[in-house]
Amino acid sequence: MELPHDGDYFVDVHLGDPLLVRISRGDITKSSTDAIVNAANSMLLAGGGVCGAIHRAAGPAIADECRKISERQSPLAPGHAVATTAGLLPSKYVIHAVGPIWRGGDEDEAQVLANCYRESMCIADELGLRSMAFPAISTGVFGYPVKEAAAVAIPTIVKSLAAAKHLVFVEMVLFDKPTLDSFAAVALQQPDAYPNHSYYCSIGQMQS
User: Fold this and answer.
1) Mean pLDDT per 10-residue interval, the chain, length 208 residues
2) Helical packing angle, 146-163 and 177-189, nearest 10°
3) What's the CA angle centered on 51, arms 49 and 56, to 5 degrees?
4) pTM of the complete model
5) Cα separation of 101 and 116, whole Å?
6) What pLDDT is recorded for position 177?
7) Within 10 Å of residue 11's Cβ, how many Cβ atoms?
8) Is 13 helix (H, G, I), strand (E, B) or coil?
9) What is the set of domains in the chain, with CATH numbers?
10) Burial of residue 18, with CB atoms counted within 10 A of its CB: 0-12 exposed, 13-18 middle, 19 or more buried
11) How many Å apart are CA 34 and CA 171, to the nearest integer?
12) Quick check: bond before 75 cis, omega within 30?
């Protein structure tokens, strides 16, 4: 299956009705999933990139909640996540996940990144949520290479969704087309990794 060269597209990974992983390009602050995931820093402060955008769109409510969490358990270690309400965002919750800083790949970055996705999905499932959206955690200022991050994120999400009790839909909402292409390419390769599971991909065009 070949990825489109022009225009915005999405890839749907079907894991058996109703389980679905979607990979798309867009603005995660506009997502109407039950929760969105913030690529947070250990102090849970408003930063740049996705983190800053989420805090700006949500208003002061989540900053107040993050401050209270930080007073109890700061700093939050890489690989872990906490939930707050979502303020002015369309979602119900924001799950703040602290990704690893890329140091060349020899300091367990992949395991820490995988745990970000697993723990975020576990929190959403424990909250009884049906849907959630992720950015590409750690690929911004934390420097994690996009292709390597995709190779961790996609299989971790697939396995975690298959094991969830409540979650049925997970979306990767990515900032630009090169990142979308990298994550989509990994998703299209994954059926070979799951020969004993229902797994097939379809490609659609985003509506303008």
Assistant:
1) 83 93 97 97 92 96 94 91 98 98 96 98 98 97 97 95 96 96 92 66 85
2) 50
3) 95
4) 0.94
5) 12
6) 94
7) 24
8) strand
9) 9-205 (3.40.220.10)
10) exposed
11) 11
12) yes
Amino acid of residue 207:
Q
Helix H, strand E, coil C: the string for 75-137 is CCCCCCEEEEECCCCCCCEEEEEECCCCCCCCCCHHHHHHHHHHHHHHHHHHCCCCEEEECCC
| DSSP sequence for 30-87 | G--SSEEEEEE-TT----SHHHHHHHHHH-HHHHHHHHHHHHHHPSPPTT-EEEEE-T
Q: How many residues does the chain have?
A: 208
Question: Tokens representing 1?
Answer: 């299956």
Dihedral sign (CA 115, 118, 122, 124): positive
Edge-to-edge strand list for the sheet holding 93-98: 81-85, 93-98, 35-40, 131-134, 169-174, 20-25, 9-14, 200-205
